[in-house]
Design goal:
The protein is mostly beta strands. The protein folds into three domains: 87 residues, Immunoglobulin-like (Sandwich); 76 residues, Immunoglobulin-like (Sandwich), CATH 2.60.40; 93 residues, Immunoglobulin-like, CATH 2.60.40. It has one helix and 22 strands. The protein has a four-stranded antiparallel beta sheet, with no helix packed on it. Strand 14 and strand 15 form a beta hairpin. The longest helix has 27 residues. About 6% of the residues have low confidence.
Length: 307
C-alpha cells in the first residue's frame, strides 16, 4: 500500500513537469500568449491620430502575432487599393490622397484591431477649387498642362460638351481643347486623383466656317472673328485684298499645326479703325499661296455685313 502511494505521487509529479514543459514550448514558439498589437506611432491606444506634412505616410507594426492585414479609406469613403496602401512584412506605407486618411491594422490571429487617423497638411493634397476662364479662337485650340495635381485626371461636363473637342496628350500630360461652335460657352470641371478641381468656363470666339469661294455673314462689331478655311484640304492661303478698316497686324491667316487640321482666317475689328457706329460691308480676299499652275488661281472672298 505504501509502495502504491509512492508510485502515484511520482506519476503526478511527472505529469506536472510535462505540462509545464509543454506550456513553455508553446510560449517559446509564439503559439500562446500573443503579444499585444502595437505600432511605431501612438502610445499604445486603440485609436491613434497623427499629422504629417507629407503625401506618403509610413509606420511599422512593432508587436503582434505576425499575421496582419491593413486597409484604408480616404475622407470621401474611397477604399485605397493595394498600390496605395502596402504591407511589406511589418512595414506599412500609405498614399495620402485626401486631407484625412483612415487606416485599420488587423491582427488576424489575436483578432486585435488598431485604428489610425492620418491628417496631412500638404497643400498639394488640399481639395481646393480654382476658377478658370479660357478664350478659344474658333477653329483653333487652347493647350492646358496638367501639372497642378495628381494623375489620373478626369473631366466632368456641366454644360455645352458638344461645343468642344478635347484631346488628351500624355507627353507632356496636357489637354488640348478645340472650339467647335463659334460664339459658344462651355462649363466643365477637371478633377485630379486627390480631390483638387479646376472649374473651367470656355468662350469660343464668334466665327463661321469657309466652305466655298464666297462667304457672306451678318455680324455686329465683335473685337475678333475667326473663319476656319475648310473649302480645300491641305491648301495654304494668304490675304490678297482687304478693306482699309480691317487692315491690322492681328488680321492674318493662321497656319495648320499638330492639333489644327485647317488654316483659319483671324480678323480683328479694331475699335481704332472701325467706328462704333459703322454700318456697311467690309471684305477680305484670300488667294492660294505658292501656286505655279496658272489654272489653279483660286480665290476666296469673305464679306462682313456690319449691322
Amino acid at each position: 500500500m505504501h509502495w502504491m502511494m509512492k508510485s502515484i505521487i511520482r506519476l503526478s509529479i511527472l505529469s506536472i513537469i510535462t505540462i509545464v514543459a509543454l506550456s513553455s514550448c508553446e510560449s517559446d514558439n509564439g503559439l500562446a500568449n500573443d503579444s499585444k498589437l502595437a505600432l511605431s506611432v501612438g502610445g499604445g491606444e486603440e485609436r491613434i491620430s497623427t499629422c504629417t506634412p507629407d503625401t506618403i505616410y509610413q509606420f511599422d507594426i512593432i508587436s503582434g502575432s505576425g499575421y496582419y492585414e491593413v486597409k484604408a479609406k480616404d475622407d470621401v469613403n474611397n477604399v485605397l487599393d493595394n498600390e496605395e496602401i502596402k504591407l511589406r512584412g511589418t512595414h506599412v506605407s500609405v498614399l495620402l490622397k485626401t486631407p484625412t486618411t483612415y487606416v485599420e491594422v488587423y491582427d488576424k490571429k489575436s483578432k486585435q484591431i488598431l485604428y489610425l487617423e492620418i491628417e496631412t497638411t500638404n497643400s498639394f493634397i488640399s481639395p481646393s477649387v480654382e476658377d478658370c476662364s479660357w478664350y478659344i479662337n474658333f477653329g483653333s485650340y487652347i493647350k492646358e498642362n496638367l501639372n497642378w495635381g495628381t494623375q489620373p485626371y478626369t473631366i466632368e461636363y456641366i454644360d455645352g460638351k458638344e461645343n468642344l473637342d478635347v484631346i488628351w496628350n500624355h507627353n507632356p500630360l496636357c489637354i488640348v481643347v478645340k472650339g467647335k461652335v463659334g460664339g459658344s460657352h462651355t462649363h466643365f470641371i477637371i478633377h485630379d486623383n486627390r480631390g483638387r478641381k479646376r472649374n473651367v468656363t470656355t468662350l469660343v470666339s464668334q466665327g463661321w466656317v469657309i466652305k466655298d469661294d464666297t462667304l457672306a455673314v451678318s455680324t455686329s462689331l465683335f473685337h475678333y472673328l475667326d473663319f476656319p478655311i475648310q473649302c480645300e484640304e491641305n491648301s495654304s492661303w494668304e490675304i490678297d485684298g482687304i478693306s482699309k478698316e480691317l487692315m491690322s497686324a492681328e488680321t492674318l491667316v493662321c497656319n495648320r499645326d499638330k492639333y489644327r487640321n485647317y488654316e483659319y482666317l483671324h480678323v480683328c475689328l479694331s475699335p481704332n479703325r472701325v467706328d462704333a457706329n459703322f454700318k456697311g460691308q467690309l471684305y477680305i480676299k484670300l488667294k492660294k499661296k505658292n501656286v505655279t499652275d496658272r489654272f489653279d488661281r483660286r480665290h476666296i472672298i469673305v464679306f462682313l455685313n456690319i449691322n
